[in-house]
Amino acid sequence: MTQKMQITLTVNGTRHEILAEPRELLIHVLRERLNITGPHIGCETSHCGACTVTMGNRSVKSCTVFAAQADGAEITTIEGLGTPDALHPLQEAFREHHGLQCGFCTPGMITRAAQLLRENPNPTEEEVRFGMSGNLCRCTGYQNIVKAVLAAAATINSAKEAAQ
Amino acid sequence: MIPAAFEYHRPGDLPSALALLQQHGDEARVIAGGHSLIPMMKLRMAEVPHLIDLQAIDALRGIRIDGTRITLGAMVTQHELIAHEGLARVAPILREAALQIADPQVRYMGTIGGNVANGDPGNDMPGLMQCLDATFHVTGPGGERAIPARSFYESAYMTAREEDEILTAVSFDAPTGGQAYEKQKRKIGDYATAAAAVILTRSGATCTHASIAMTNLSDVPVWSEAAGAALTGTPCDEAAMLNAIAAMLADIDPAGDNRGPVEFKRHTAGIILARAIARAWSRA
Ligand SMILES: Cc1cc2nc3c(=O)[nH]c(=O)nc-3n(C[C@H](O)[C@H](O)[C@H](O)COP(=O)(O)OP(=O)(O)OC[C@H]3O[C@@H](n4cnc5c(N)ncnc54)[C@H](O)[C@@H]3O)c2cc1C
Ligand code: FES
Ligand code: FES
Question: What is the predicted ipTM?
């Protein structure tokens, strides 16, 4: 076993100092050391997107990032997006538009969609489909996920306009 | 899927990274975006006792356009290539190709340097770089070297880069004329069943120059000089296109695998090249 190294991660605004082996994957550190279990492990082979988190301003598959690479980074997971009493507009829209069935893919979907809308606040339907193409869903057939993302975009934009 | 244990290094500049490579010899390897290397390490097909992360080396970043010469730092990600408006103006084929690589999450991490240094025949950038006649810049203990993309690939995962050298940048002249990157894949996010990069220049009704490269149809990318020559001096009509396809088919050497048998891949290669030529010509 190699020596453990000190890794600093800021997850959903909270700073954590962790002692981990360099070979530990970010998803394992989040789920098993920090008990942040929103991001799921689906395939563990960089294909399904269930493990998606935001690192800095990038959506990443946390099963394909070593925790050591993330040392110093700011991470946002689904836990950082809303609370049960004050859902994020994407969470609200997924509920309203039936954008989930079993819910396994949902944390990754919503985390990815949040970054997509940060970069492109007014996406077309096609841009949503292309921008979400790294996330697989075995239940919904995607139609309602796309609807939910478009609806959330509209909600976020009108809230921004109202604030101006 | 947990990789074998390793020690992690994050040098802050190129000389430190080169020193680490020297010190640990064939026990060391660099990691860029990690989206080819980490899957291999998880499968234990790659064992890397010393992993040298290039993320903190600023000299490997950045997209530079000096007149007509374009230089991409090795650590430029596919996402950054796609987002760069200046690059899309002077070399639109880069964005067109990068958008067909993997999926958004992979493109935020995967780098141009990793894509061309990897040596996997499935990678899309090597063929495109051969089509552009790009130069790969590497630095090692003996200093800097420039290697033409067209002579970089020896066989699968074997390249002209020495193990103690780091690829620092790729550079190429802004292409003139019509450009197209066409790729057939089983689903979004997949490697190519066949892909073609085509750049054509045109004077009146005549094609005056053509460069054609194919991806994942041999254990190395295939720049088909003969296919380009078959279009040059022609009006790029059907007869010329069929000649170019025949020349390309003589240069590729696909293997049957889970993307299909050899006959299917050769058929697909012909169709993809025809589409790429037609699209490049319509833009020339
Ligand atoms: C699901 C999935 C789908 C994908 N689909 C495609 C696809 O369709 N087309 C495609 O082209 N790619 C595809 N990829 C691969 C992806 O684009 C990789 O990110 C890319 O090939 C490698 O870039 P990297 O920065 O991640 O390199 P790494 O994985 O970090 O490195 C790859 C190799 O190159 C070496 N290396 C990296 N940088 C340097 C350097 N500067 N100097 C010397 N050696 C270096 C490393 O030591 C390693 O051996 C896919 C990956 C995944 C996970
Ligand atoms: S678990 Fe990471 S992509 Fe599937
Ligand atoms: S809701 Fe079940 S996988 Fe998407």
Answer: 0.97
